[in-house]
Each structure stands twice: as C-alpha cells, then as structure tokens.
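It would be a great kindness if you could assist me with a short task in structural biology. The matter concerns a single protein, recorded as an amino acid sequence and a row of backbone structure tokens. Kindly check, if you would, that the fold set down in the tokens agrees with what the sequence suggests. Thank you for your consideration; the sequence and its tokens are set out here:
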Amino acid sequence: MKRIVSIIIMTAFIWMGCENKSTSPGVSDTEILIGNIQDLSGPIKELGLLIPAGTNMYLDYINSQGGVHGRQIKMLVEDHGYNPQKAVVAAKKLIEKDQVFCLYNVIGTSPAEAIRPILEESGVPLIAPATNSSSMSDMSRQAAEYIFHTDAGYDLQTRVLIDYIIDKNPDAKIGIAYQDDDYGENALKGCAEAEGNHGITVQKESFQRGATDFVGQTMNFMKGGCTDVIIGGIVREPVTIMKTAQAIGYKAQFYGLGPTVDPRVGMLAGEAGEGFIAAYWANYPNSDDSGPTLYRQLSEQNNVPEKMRGLYHYYGFATAHVLVEGLMKAGKYPTRERLMKGLETLHDWDSGVFPPITYSRNDHAGVESVILLQLQGGKQVAITDWRE
C-alpha cells in the first residue's frame, strides 16, 4: 500500500514538473516570437517604419546580452493600412498561421479595438497597444484582461490641456478638432468632463481619418472666436491647421494630444508652429532620464539617422521595455497566462522610459499622468511638471 502511495506521489511530482515546463505557442528553446501590426501602406505609414525600428533597436540590445532566459526575441510585423478590418485579418494570420506568443504595439485606436474578439477567443495578450486611448485600459470592455496599456489616455490629456488653458485664462474660448473615430471619441470624453468641471462649452470640429484639408474647420474656429484650439491628430493635422491659420490671419494658441509631440510637427510647421503645446506621457527622448539616455546611446551606436529619432522611434524603444519586462516575469518556461500574471505584479515599476507603472488584476492602465511640452525655437521644452 505504501508503495502504491509513493508511486502516486512521484507521478504527481513528475506531472507537476512537466506542467511547469510547458510553454505557449511562439516559444521554442531558443526563441520567442511576437507579432506587431502597423500601418505600412496607409496615411500614417511613416510610423510603421519608425515604431518597429525603435522596438528592434531595443530588442537587439537585449538579444545581444543573451535575450530573455536564454531566448532571443523575434518580432513579425504585419500591415493594416490604418484599416480596422485589415487589422483583424493581420491578427488572425499572426496568431493562427505564424503562431506568435503575443501581440504587441498594434497601432491605432480603431484597429486595436477591432481585434478584441480575437484576443478573447485565442487568449493571446496584447502588450502596449500603440494608441493613447484609455478605452484600451477600460476593464469593463471585451478582452480587457488580455490588454496591457502603457499610454495616458486621450481623455486625460484633453482634460489636462483644458484645465491648463482655463487656469491661464478663465475667459478663454476653446475649440477642439477631433478625428471622427475611436480616437476622437476618447478625446471628447475628456472634453466633456472638463466642460462639466469648468461650466464651459468647447467648440467641436470633426475630421475624417486621413484628411488633408482643414480649411473648413480652421475657418469655423476663427468665426467662433476660439482663442485656444486643441488638435487631436498626429502630424499632418496640426501642421495643416496651424499653416492654414497663419495663411488666413487667424491667431490662436494651438495645442495637441500625445501623437502631435512628433518633432516633425515643428519642422514642417516652421514659424506657424512656434509656441505649439502638446501633452506627453513618457520621459521625453531629449531628457536626462536613464531611458532617454540609453536611447540616444543606442541610436548613436546603431547609426540611426537624425531624422528618424524622436517620438515614434522612441515609442517603439520605450514600449519594448514593458514587453521585455513581461517576458522576464513570465519565467524560464513562459506561457501567455504567466506573461499576464507577471505584468500584474508590477508596482511603481520604474522603467526609465515612463513614469512609474503599476498593473494589477483590475488595473491595466499603465501611465496616468502627462507633462506639457512647448515648441520653442523649434525644440520641445517642458513647461509643466507631471499632471493628472
């Protein structure tokens, strides 16, 4: 009888050992395969070049030091052309055909929102979706437990900008240009909150994703007497609106949400962009923090062209820190579940690239504060401390 019990116990230990050493698809003895979905052919295709390049620079740095638990990290990139339907096709390919371990950095609010059913069905986590929308960290939404956001939301950014404007000028007339999709919807959420807090009405002008003509919106802001205008765009939108305003003699203070921190805004807008203020939620690439310092060192070592350096290249580099930390926390035998549980142990984690990040089972928000940067002489200068 004792022998039978001993055999059962030994069998249980062997089974437990095998169970602990099991891994998820995308993991081999030497490699971890991750999937990224970018715009490589659509209206923000330049980002599809910059973001993965920044990520690969950091992954190469980690791989050169032995990788994660002895495995090299390899990233596959698919194109969605900034189209939600194509994002769904790309996600299915990466998960079902390529058998990636996890998804990472899917760019765009609407494309990232579109793949929620796939995440839920497959159990594949999405790390650091490349959108500032706080909808990504809304734990009441479908597949929320599989998504780990990094960026402060567009709603928070918009509210902070309106608070800043009203603090400086209680009589300000504020306008907001917003993209007519999930991006804009999240910005309007913060706008509505600020309107309620201050008892004001913000003039709202929409535009379609990929729009190139903003004469109508700019004229409407001028007719409405807007002294301060927030632009919920990326690069083309703030540049075009500010240049249009300059051409028609409309003088207002212009602001932008996170994506407009891109240094190309200042370069392309020129004189029209002087004084432009944008909300940002990470340690800026030119700061003396440890993350940006490493970023500049690696950029020099890898001969990254100056025109590639900055917000989006840095974004890929910065969010890769979260991915790598999650893989480290997943242990020597990583599974998707261990990856998620590992990330949920982060508490005031100082990555060097972001303000301290905390995740838990009920909170996947990441950064929840922003700093305001202003274009002064063509360079981004911090004009506030961190604001919530």
